[in-house]
Amino acid sequence: MSVINVGVIGASGYTGLELVKILINHPKFTLAYVANSEGETTIDKLHPSLQGVCNLEVQKADIEACASSCELVFLALPHKTAMAYVKPLIAKGVKVVDLSADYRLPQDIYEEFYTPHTDPQNLEHVVYGLPEMYREELKSAKLVANPGCFPTSALLGLLPFMDKRVENTPIIIDAKTGVSGAGKKLSDVTHFVNVNDNLFAYNPLMHRHAPEIAQKLGVDFDEVNFVPHLIPLTRGMISSIYIQVSQDFDASSVLKEFYKDEPFVRISENPVDMKNVAGTNFCDLYVKQKGNILFISSAIDNLMRGASSQAVVNANIMMGLCQKDGIPNIAYVP
After folding, report:
1. Residue 198 and residue 32: Cα distance in Å, rounded?
2. One of 66, 149, 283, 322 is an active-site residue; which one?
3. Whole-angstrom Cα distance, residue 322 to residue 136?
4. What whole-number distance in Å separates Cα of residue 282 and Cα of residue 331?
5. Which of 1, 40, 74, 241 has a CA between 20 and 30 Å from the CA of residue 206?
6. Residue 29, pLDDT score
7. How far apart are CA 34 and CA 130, in angstroms?
């Protein structure tokens, strides 16, 4: 197979950097186009960690230039901004993996929690990019909505047990994430003095990732009780999930059977931690049952499995490649 030219629009942020790091070492993809809102620099000047590794020109984002250079493009852009690129790129025959929230939800739910949608036509045939749920659909997809980091962590933990959950009982998700999940833009919440030596919840019960979780689980929004917390770490995510189940069963065996053919989900016999998944696409899962209460612990790297590496897995599947091509699988633990 010949090389496949791909691009990244939104190379300035943390997820953009992780995409570039994966793609410059990918065996089948060639990173042919890198862009942000300003251009006129190189990727190693934008991200000094790439000095001596990659010095690709960073262009000012342009639809025509991207479409003439790439078969597939990754959009690492904020919501609302992304959909302005998706519509013309799809029209020009470029496949798109969108890392924003713009195509993850039906129009009415999206507009309730985000902003008016300007591309409802493409919402009709988008594929949600959680490979464990939609692998077959991804094979023929032209547009993929890459899941959010919190939904990825929660969904992978919950999916194997939804048929054992007592209907209409609360789903409780207590999630903790590193500060990189908030992006590069500085705010009072992410200011060093506020985050350092601190831990706090934000948008409890009303965070806009909750409807994404509910919608993919097929339950009402009111059933999902999602509380995210910001912790003083750069990256990583742990979700502690609690549901009520109707029967006694071997929860670990259920997990192992459900994910037996999934290379990026690992079942642990001990409580999971963030270090073992740092820098990888793995999701580590642990379960414990006490009576009719099931505890599920899910660990991912929020920038990788929660964004960039999952996006490349989706692109691999879309382009007919092995899903593991180019995907980092060794955690950088001391």
Report:
1. 42
2. 149
3. 13
4. 9
5. 74
6. 98
7. 25
| pLDDT tens-digit map of 172-220 | 999 999 888 766 676 777 788 888 888 989 889 988 899 999 999 999 9
pTM: 0.95
Query: What residues contact residue 231 under an 8 Å CB cut-off, 6+ apart?
Result: 176, 177, 178, 179, 199
| 33, 65 Cβ separation under 8 angstroms | yes
Q: What is the DSSP letter of 7?
A: E
Beta pairing partners, 35: 9, 59
The angle formed by the CA atoms of residues 206, 227 and 192, to the nearest 5 degrees, is: 105
Query: How far is 298 from 288, CA to CA, in rounded Å?
Result: 12
pLDDT at 1: 59
Rounded Cα–Cα distance for residues 293 and 289 (Å): 6
Question: What's the length of the chain?
Answer: 334
**pLDDT for res 183:** 66
pLDDT at 320: 97
Other Cβ atoms within 10 Å of 163 Cβ, number = 9
| pLDDT class of 333 with cuts at 50, 70, 90 | confident
* Rounded-to-integer distance, Cα 156 and Cα 165, Å: 15
| Residue in the structure block whose two tokens are 């984002």 | 61
Buried-exposed string 2-30: b where 16+ CB fall within 10 A, e elsewhere: eebbbbbbbbbbbbbbbbbbbbbebebbb
Domains and CATH numbers, the chain: 4-146+307-318 (3.40.50.720), 150-300 (3.30.360.10)
Average pLDDT taken over every residue of the chain: 94
CB atoms within 10 A of CB 199: 10
Let me know if 54 is a catalytic residue.
no
The b-or-e profile of 209-228 (16+ CB within 10 A means b, else e) is: bbbbbbbbbebeeebbebbb
Confidence of residue 248 (pLDDT cuts 50, 70, 90): confident
Q: What residues contact 31, with CB distance under 8 A and at least 6 apart?
A: 6, 7, 8, 20, 23, 24, 54, 56
Tell me the one-letter amino acid at 122: N
